[in-house]
Amino acid sequence: MNWRALSAAGSKTLYPVHRLHGVILLLLLIFTLLLGMGNSLHSRMLWVGEQTWPNYYLLDPDATEPTCRLVMDVDAEVEKRVEAYEPDPDDLFSSPPDPEAIRKSLEKNLALCQEAHFRYQENQKHATDALAVFKAVEQGFADFLLDNIELTKFLFIGMFAMAAAISALDADHIALRLPRNRAEWRLSQGMQFVVNGLMVYSLFSYVGRLSSSPGSEDAMVLQYAWAAVFGLFMVINLVRFLSVPARMRAGTLAVSSGLVLPLYCAMGLVAMSYFFFVDGYSSGLAIYFGMMTNLSSMFINIGLYVLVGMALKQTRIPELLLNVIKPYHLPAPMLASVMIFATAFPTAFTGASGIFILAVGGVVYDEMRKSGAGRQLSLATTAMSGSLGVVLNPCLLIVVVAALNKEVTTSEMYGWGFWVFLMSATLFSVVVCKTQGNWKPRPAPGAFRKSLAELRPLAPYAAVAAVVIVAIWLILGLGFNEYSAPMILPLVMLALVYLDSGKDHDEQGHSRGRAFWMRSTAAASDSAVHIGALLALIGFSICLGGILERSDIVHALFPENLTSPWLAMLVIVVMLTVIGMVMDPFGAVILVSATIAQPAIQLGIDPLHFWIVCLVAFELGYLSPPVALNHLLTRQVVGETEVLAAERTGSFWHRYERLLLPLVVMGPTLLTAAFVPLLFYAL
Predict the structure, then answer these.
(1) CA distances from 244 to 165, 175, 192, 228 (A)
(2) Per-residue pLDDT tens for 494-529?
(3) What are phi and psi of 423, to 5 degrees?
(4) Residue 354, H or E segment
(5) pTM of the model
(6) Taking Cα atoms as reference points, which of 7, 4, 8, 3 lies closest to residue 505?
(7) Most CB contacts within 10 A, which of 130, 210, 234, 529?
């Protein structure tokens, strides 16, 4: 893949564009988005109703006149009831009625009747046709939301099925390397067929368990839906196994051929081996993968963030932002430092580091190479550009942590995460400038004025984004924060794509609407590939984590005689880093919440401290071999040829700087974040 092509303007995509699939997924995501905004919309409708018709909640256009007696002679009624009393000879406790009690009861009923007639009269004053129509729409919408609470789960299954099917068709699931010959291609497809088949077997095993439990019909329907999805994947794998692409040359398997297996396959094989052979729990794979269904809203948000990242790639915004710093002619080390600081905040807004790399990594790599940086430094900067922002507001990962763990809040984690980001980004700058040299900028005369002038093209984008955010607030009463960001940002980005459409020379002759259609469907098509690959990895990461939860590993690591927070923190640092090396961060957070968090907190580790360490360890983990997820995604962006070419010359440091630099930066950051705070509460 030519890395220079990735920085070109216009409609850009890393994969074959499946416009039909892209349109379906885009509509599915937008419908899910609107459904997620349903509660806010209904609250706004109630607010509008109250502002338009006072006491809207009490008004009923179909109200009927009360039938109770509005006028009553209380004294006469009391006397009548007292006189009507006849003692019951069979009732030992029979006694004459109390006239005062009867009087109080009648007076209370009369007051209630008068109030009912008053409400009816007031209701009639406002019972217009407009109220009837508005009330019917509002209550119909409320009934729709109540009746479709479970719909989100099936929308998530549909989104996963669509996206993962495209990933399987294009053979774009995340692996340590790509197949290089026909034998490796068939190995990859064959093992995917096996793992998907094992999942189907586990799902039907779970259905067998559920069939003996009353009231489990809804859960069984979900299992059948998942079985249909993985059955579809098996069909795709079988077709791709038999239909080998013509570009694949003949060849045989080698020792390294196992690296072509998608990571989700390796995780599925390990998990199923444990559940089946060790634990005797054949439905384990289905149960742990099904946890995604219970958290479907969270994983749909991941899909929405992926769409945000891919839509960002369809605009000129990354290039326009980089144009602001170009007049300073920064040398490569300083540019790398600026990139790390500047890209952290967009990373937080795209929800996860990998999404940002896929969206903007090509531009970052391009600019680093143009500044004279070597391939290794450019690759390291690209990989780390999508990692340091995971502790900043409004990153979804922290929202997930706070949702699963009530001991911490998002505001606390964002506050301390900001200081951790400053520490790691500063350390990166120091290391790069020290190892590379020639870091002092030499701006040309008038660079500041030129830089300010480059801000002018960004003004329309900022204005449109502000208008969309304010409009959503005015219409729905939904303010922009870490919880609403997954719903608001896709609409903002689609508006920015529309603004940017038609401005590229390749789109001359097309209307803005046509150009927007091409870019948005291209973004949705790329989103499908990444959503499918990412969610498959997350799901099987959770399955892999099930081994840790069901085994005695946690008890062995945190025995009852372990009372020192310092030793506990050492164990936590090692364990979390290893988890981060082999698991997706979202799946890892779910695992750690269920297994490690509570034992660590009970040993005296502050909950906020624990989760900050957890996030930093995950940052180190997905920059570290053997998986190094961010490096794999960087390879997808810049091409395997660039990565291999970067390892051929220079000293050991320069040949492997893309791997060593993140370790040198994040290692000390993790140790500092883990042990320095203990000095203040664990001595």
Answers:
(1) 17, 18, 15, 25
(2) 999 999 987 776 766 778 888 888 888 888 888 888
(3) -65, -50
(4) helix 353-370
(5) 0.81
(6) 8
(7) 529
